[in-house]
Structures are given as structure tokens and as C-alpha cells.
Design brief:
Layout: E1 12-14, E2 23-31, E3 35-42, E4 44-49, E5 52-57, E6 65-72, E7 82-90, E8 104-111, E9 114-118, E10 125-128, E11 147-151, E12 156-157, E13 160-162, E14 167-170, E15 180-182, E16 185-194, H1 204-207, H2 225-230, E17 232-242, E18 245-249, E19 252-272, E20 275-282, E21 300-305, E22 308-313, E23 318-327, E24 331-341, H3 358-373, H4 393-405, H5 409-417, H6 447-464, H7 467-472, H8 474-485, E25 515-516, H9 517-534, H10 537-554, E26 563-567, E27 570-573, H11 579-587, H12 597-606, H13 609-613, H14 627-640, H15 644-662, H16 683-697
Parallel strand pairs: 6-14, 11-21
Antiparallel strand pairs: 1-13, 2-7, 2-10, 3-6, 3-8, 4-5, 4-7, 8-9, 10-12, 15-24, 16-17, 16-19, 18-24, 19-22, 19-23, 19-24, 20-21, 20-23, 25-26, 26-27
């Protein structure tokens, strides 16, 4: 975490509006051919040179810290005099994606080494960015505002004032490539009518606006994006036509296909007679159409356009394979529709292993694509609904970063963000946020996920040798241990944990009280990790005693039971056993194949993708695991045991259908939720492990 010092610039914002919701500022300056921009701000900004997107930022940091981008603008400075434009949005709402902190921008523009413009001084012209409609709904519960625009816009000059001083630090991670991917095909054309619906999308991000979910009340919206888009009653006819130029007549609509799911900024040119352009999108098709509210988000944009020709580039990054464009203009011609990709750079990756298998090759490519889309400045759960830096997810994605690049740069940013603030508002002292940077105004946290921070920290030390970060995290780690001490019973078992106790997306999550054994298995691994990191021998002994207690209390003679429930003051086993609980036992070392050879052989031989997907279920009483995270724990213990053929067979069974459908790997084993989840990229780690060893043998 290296400090950054601006030479002249100071942080500024529109006078008196640094705490107002969804305010946008645009500033412009002139530059020669040798231009560089040092910039940071909050919440987000885009930098353009001569109308071309140069960057979006900043990289996220913990409360009170702001990472600075140093942007080489020379590749886009093709004229003697070039226009540099910065569009910045200050959201001032809580989310899982961006902090609820006051708005500002701080920038210095260089030309040939000399500062030619800087905030708080001269060289920049400031205007209110009236192109973007301010009073709109949130994109989702987890993300701030969706997007609506009115063009052409009459921008208003504004005065800016210096804000409070900020703590600036270096970016610390690579920059994206910003390559544009064009839509491959038009797969359906049609026309629409405007019809009222009996029911409309009414997610909590619409219906529960208040102190816990900040935003604009529905009856105050200037454009109700989801409501207006839902009114489109489209009649579509399947086709397969080129997508480079799309001609729409009155109330015309078209569905375009990227060929695979990607993440970035929707970008197109349009010539229109004037009217409204609706853009809706999703990762998959639902009954042959785009269901833009499928997973609880408003995956739609609206542009109200006067007659003319426009270049439209979205401000927020979205994830999609399919997009529907609908226009009520008498005539609209869309050219070069596509996505400016916003993902981890493609440079510096290790060479793809020679897999010699079509399914494995597809899955590997999908894993790499999933990693890139979920890794820009931090590790994210998904690049769509949330864009949130979740613990546990990061444990898996961090391994992928190292396997693919040989580095842990993004992981360092991710981990150090958690130790930046003095405390975390809204959650108990000692606890860590379940995802971060974020603000959890509803006081929700996942105690289990905080343990994964320490488990990952141990592996990070082995990967990086970064003892400095480990020592900076020590107070936070032992504060977390102190928090859990308050829930230990006389046997050392955690019981009656509060808030959202999470195991995985399966029946396991129905069995989290009163004493949850997968949680306690992870607690063993957590204590071992602290012991290994900081040389705490007593904690290692505690972990050994706890593991023995779990073996004595949880194992039924055939399976590990998920939980014990208090009855008349005594904890009794529920005898409800899940697949994921068995994987937790072996993953954490509470169980080994030597201690439980029968159970081990049953898991290897009778469990896996065929059990659910092909109905080969010998044990219907054992609830299925899901992709996140039970199936991944299964694959890891197979890998650790050197059972590579079984592992590869499982990889084909669990993931090839995902790779074929979206080109990415999913949150669940079916497409009800995100079809692009960062942790899922870990499949590449196993393939590199197996085929890397094969290469070594050669």
C-alpha cells in the first residue's frame, strides 16, 4: 500500500453537492500528443480522449483510502490538440459494490511532463452532466443506480469547491485492455406494443427504499426504467442475420448475440429520427427472449434521443450474452453494436495447457473468461448483479490468479482493503464484512465468511512471501478470533452464531443451528491457519481438540451429521446429513481417508455429477451439494488425493454444459442465478495442476 502524492491537484466536487445521490459531473481539457492523466475519485469515472473510452476507475479501496490511476493517453492522442473528457458519478448510496462516501474527483493532466490542467486550479472546464437522468431506480439491491439518458443534453457550467482531504494510494493492479467485442448475430426480429402489466418487477431495491437501502422512492423517479421496459410486448421471429448494422422501423426490436457472455460497456452508434431506445440484456435466453429482471436486477437502459446521429457508450459495466434493442422512432439504424470489454488484461497469462480433450478445453477457456470478467481491481462474486468482493469466493479466485499469472497482485489489493478502516460500521466489533468494500446498513454479516479471510491469508503468505501485509492484518485476525470466543461452548464448539450463517446453496443452509458442524470444521481450519501464520502453538492444539470433538459428536457411524439442536437443555444430533457436510469434513482435515476409509470410498465412487444430473443416486437421504461451494470442495479433495481421472471426469460432468451455454462458469449448477461467478474459475487451477505435472514428466 504505497501512498500517492498529487503535485498540484486537490479533490473537488460540485459546490454543496458532495453528499447528494446520483450526481454526475463532466470536466474537459485540451492535451497535446504526449498526455498522461493521474486521477482518482468517488464513486466512479470514465476518461475519454476524442470521444474514445480510455479508462474507467478507480480501483476500489477500503474506507478512507482512494487508489490513483496513472493513465498513458498517448495511444488515443492522434491530433495536435486532443480533447480529454472525464465523466464522474457520485452515487452516495450504500451497496455491495461501492462505498457510501462523499463524491469528489482529483486529477492532474500532464503534457510532455508538464501539468497543463488540475482540479482545484486551472485547465479544466466543469459542467453538470445532464445527459444522464438523475432520478432513476437502483440497478439492484447490491449495486447503485441504473442508467437512463436524454440526448442531446444542454449541459450547465457549474462551480466546484475543494472537498475534505483524502488519503491517496497507488492503484496496485494492472489496467484492462478495453477491447471492443461486436455482437455476432441478430437472432430474432420483431415489433412491440406498449401494454400495461398485471404485475411489475418490484424488487426490494424498489419497494424497500429507506435508511437500509438508499435510493429514490418509486413515485419520485423521472424514468422508471424497469417499469417502462416491462411494458414492451414484443412479438419476435427467430432469424440468423448479421449484427453489424441493424435497421429498425417504428416499434421495431431485435435480439443480438455476442456468442458468449462478456462483461463491459454497451457501445453502439445510432442514427435516429428521434425517439426512445430501450436496451435490455441477460446472460441467457428465457423461453427464447431476454428476461432482464431474471436474477433480481434491472438489466436495462433507456435513451431518449432527438433526431440525429449518436455514439452511445454506457457508464456502468454489465454482463450479458444477449441484448434486445427496441426503438419507437420511425427510423433507427444501429451500427457496430458491441461491448467494450472491462476485465483483467489478457497479457501475462501462462500458456494454455495441451488438454487434448474438447470438453476440458471448453471448460478451461470458460474458466479463464470467468476469471477475467470477475477480476479487475478486486475479486468479485459476479460482474453483473453485484460486482462485490465476497470472502470465500476470493479464496478460490485468488488461487486462479496465481495459477494463471504467477502473481497475487489483485489478491493483495483485495486483502489489504479489509485492514484499511479503523472499524466497520453496522457489524459487531471484531467481525469482518462478508463482502468489501461495501456498506451493510442492515447489519447483516456472514460469520463463516470471515473465517475464510484468514484461511486465504495463510495461502497468500505462501504464494507471495508478503510478511508485511500479514503483520498489518494481525490485529484484525485476533480481533476476529476474540469475536468467535464469545460463541464457544464448554466443549470449544461454536454454537448459536448470529446473523447469516452460510454453508452453501443447498439444504445445508437449513441446518445451521444450534451447533453447525461444517462451521466448526471450518473453525478448526481457521485456528490452524492463525497458528501457522503467527506461530501460535496453543491455537494449533485447540484446533486438534476441536477436530476430535467434532469427530466424536458429529459422525453417526456412516455420515457426518450437519447439526445438533438443543432439546431440554441438551444438544442432540438432528441426524440430517448432507453431501456438502462430508466435503467440509475432508477439506478441513477433520476427516481423512485413513480415518474414514468407508466414507471416503463412498464419496469417490457414488457421489459426483452423475448422482444429480443423471439420476444415479444411491443415497436419496443425503441432500445434494451445489456448485457453490460443495462441488468445489469435492473436486479439491479429489485433487489433493491425486485422483486425477476421477477429477477430470467430474469436471466434464459439472461444467461442460455451462461452457457450451454461456462460455462462463456459474454460481449454481443450474442457470437460476448468476451464470458468471468468480470462484468458479478455480477449475483452471486443477487443470493447470494436472496438465502442468504431465508437462513436467515430458
Amino acid at each position: 500500500m504505497q501512498d500517492f502524492k498529487f503535485k498540484k491537484a486537490s479533490p473537488v466536487w460540485i459546490t454543496g453537492e458532495e453528499k447528494e445521490m446520483n450526481v454526475s459531473l463532466v470536466m474537459t481539457a485540451k492535451a497535446g500528443k504526449d498526455a498522461r492523466l493521474d486521477i482518482t475519485g468517488h464513486s466512479l469515472y470514465q476518461v475519454y480522449v476524442n470521444g474514445e473510452l480510455a479508462a474507467e476507475g478507480p480501483a476500489r479501496a477500503g474506507h478512507g483510502f482512494y487508489r490513483v490511476d496513472t493513465l498513458d493517453l498517448r495511444p488515443l492522442c492522434t491530433k495536435d490538440e486532443n480533447t480529454v473528457t472525464v465523466i464522474t458519478a457520485g452515487y452516495n448510496v450504500n451497496s455491495f459494490y461501492l462505498l457510501d462516501e462523499p463524491s469528489f474527483v482529483c486529477a492532474e493532466l500532464y503534457d510532455g511532463g508538464a501539468i497543463t490542467a488540475f482540479t482545484g486550479g486551472g485547465g479544466f472546464a466543469y459542467e453538470r452532466y445532464t445527459d444522464r437522468v438523475r432520478r432513476v431506480q437502483r440497478y439492484s439491491f447490491q449495486r447503485p443506480f441504473a442508467e437512463a439518458y436524454r440526448l442531446p443534453a444542454k449541459r450547465e457550467p457549474v462551480s466546484v469547491s475543494r472537498t475534505a482531504d483524502k488519503r491517496f494510494i497507488e492503484r496496485g493492479v494492472p489496467y484492462p485492455d478495453y477491447d471492443k467485442e461486436l455482437f455476432k448475430n441478430a437472432i430474432a426480429y420483431g415489433t412491440f406494443e406498449i401494454k400495461e402489466r398485471d404485475r411489475y418487477f418490484n424488487d426490494r431495491a424498489i419497494s424497500e427504499i429507506g435508511d437500509k437501502i438508499k435510493g429514490f422512492e418509486p413515485d419520485t423517479l423521472e424514468v422508471f426504467i424497469s417499469r417502462e421496459t416491462e411494458k414492451l410486448d414484443c412479438g419476435m421471429e427467430a432469424c440468423e442475420k448479421p449484427a453489424d448494422e441493424v435497421k429498425l422501423g417504428k416499434n421495431g426490436c431485435v435480439i443480438l448475440d455476442l456468442g458468449a457472455e462478456l462483461t463491459g460497456f454497451i457501445d453502439l452508434e445510432i442514427e435516429t429520427s428521434g425517439g426512445r431506445l430501450y436496451i435490455s440484456f441477460d446472460e441467457i435466453l428465457s423461453d427464447g427472449d431476454v428476461n432482464f429482471t431474471r436474477f433480481g436486477a434491472c438489466s436495462a437502459m433507456i435513451y431518449d434521443l432527438g433526431p440525429g446521429r449518436y455514439r452511445l457508450t454506457g457508464f456502468e459495466p454489465y454482463s450479458l450474452r444477449y441484448a434486445k434493442f427496441a426503438s419507437d422512432a420511425d427510423r433507427a439504424v444501429i451500427t457496430s453494436p458491441g461491448l467494450i470489454r472491462f476485465e483483467f488484461t489478457s497479457s501475462g497469462f501462462r500458456k494454455k495447457p495441451d488438454l487434448g480433450d474438447g470438453a476440458l478445453s471448453r471448460v478451461y477457456d470458460a474458466a479463464v473468461s470467468t476469471f477475467r470478467q470477475n477480476t479487475v481491481d478486486i475479486f468479485m462474486d459476479c460482474p453483473s448483479r453485484e460486482r462485490a468482493g465476497w470472502l470465500c469466493d476470493s479464496y478460490f479466485t485468488s488461487r486462479t490468479e496465481y495459477a494463471l499469472t504467477g502473481k497475487s497482485e489483485v489478491e493483495k489489493n483485495f486483502l489489504e482493503n479489509f485492514i484499511m478502516p479503523e472499524k466497520f460500521e453496522f457489524i459487531p466489533e471484531g467481525m469482518l464484512p462478508m463482502c468489501y468494500p461495501s456498506d451493510h446498513n442492515d447489519h447483516t454479516y456472514i460469520p463463516n465468511w470471515a473465517m475464510w479471510y484468514v484461511v486465504e491469508l495463510e495461502e497468500y503468505l505462501h504464494r507471495s512471501g508478503d510478511r508485511e501485509l500479514i503483520e498489518k492484518a494481525k490485529e484484525r485476525v485476533y480481533g476476529l478470533l476474540s469475536f468467535f470466543r464469545g460463541f464457544e461452548n464448554g466443549d470449544g464448539l461454536l454454537e448459536k452464531l448470529q446473523s447469516w450463517v452460510f454453508i452453501e446453496w443447498s439444504h445445508s443452509n437449513d441446518l445451521v443451528q444450534d451447533i453447525n458442524f461444517p462451521t466448526n470444521m471450518l473453525y478448526c481450519k481457521f485456528k490452524k491457519a492463525i497458528s501457522n501464520i503467527y506461530g501460535d502453538a496453543e491455537l494449533s492444539a485447540e484446533a486438534d481438540r476441536l477436530a476430535q470433538t467434532i469427530r466424536e459428536r458429529s459422525f453417526t457411524g456412516k455420515w457426518f451429521c450437519d447439526n445438533a439442536v438443543y432439546k431440554d437443555g441438551k444438544a442432540e444430533l438432528s441426524y440430517d446429513c448432507t453431501e456438502s457436510c462430508q466435503y467440509y469434513a475432508f477439506f478441513t482435515g477433520v476427516a481423512t481417508k485413513e480415518l474414514y476409509p468407508g466414507l471416503w470410498q463412498t464419496l469417490v465412487s457414488d457421489f459426483g455429477p452423475k448422482r444429480k444430473l443423471e439420476g444415479m443416486n444411491k443415497y436419496p437421504e443425503i441432500a445434494f451439494a451445489n456448485a457453490f461451494i460443495g462441488n468445489y470442495l469435492r473436486l479439491q479433495i479429489l485433487c489433493d488425493a491425486g485422483l486425477y481421472e476421477e477429477l477430470l471426469d467430474n469436471v466434464r460432468g459439472y461444467f461442460d454444459y455451462m461452457a457450451q451455454k454461456t462460455g462462463t462458469l456459474w454460481e449454481l449448477d443450474a442457470p437460476q442465478a448468476s451464470c458468471n461467478h468468480g470462484f468458479a474459475s478455480h477449475v483452471a487451477v486443477w487443470l493447470c495442476e494436472i496438465y502442468g505435472k504431465e508437462e513436467d514428466k515430458k
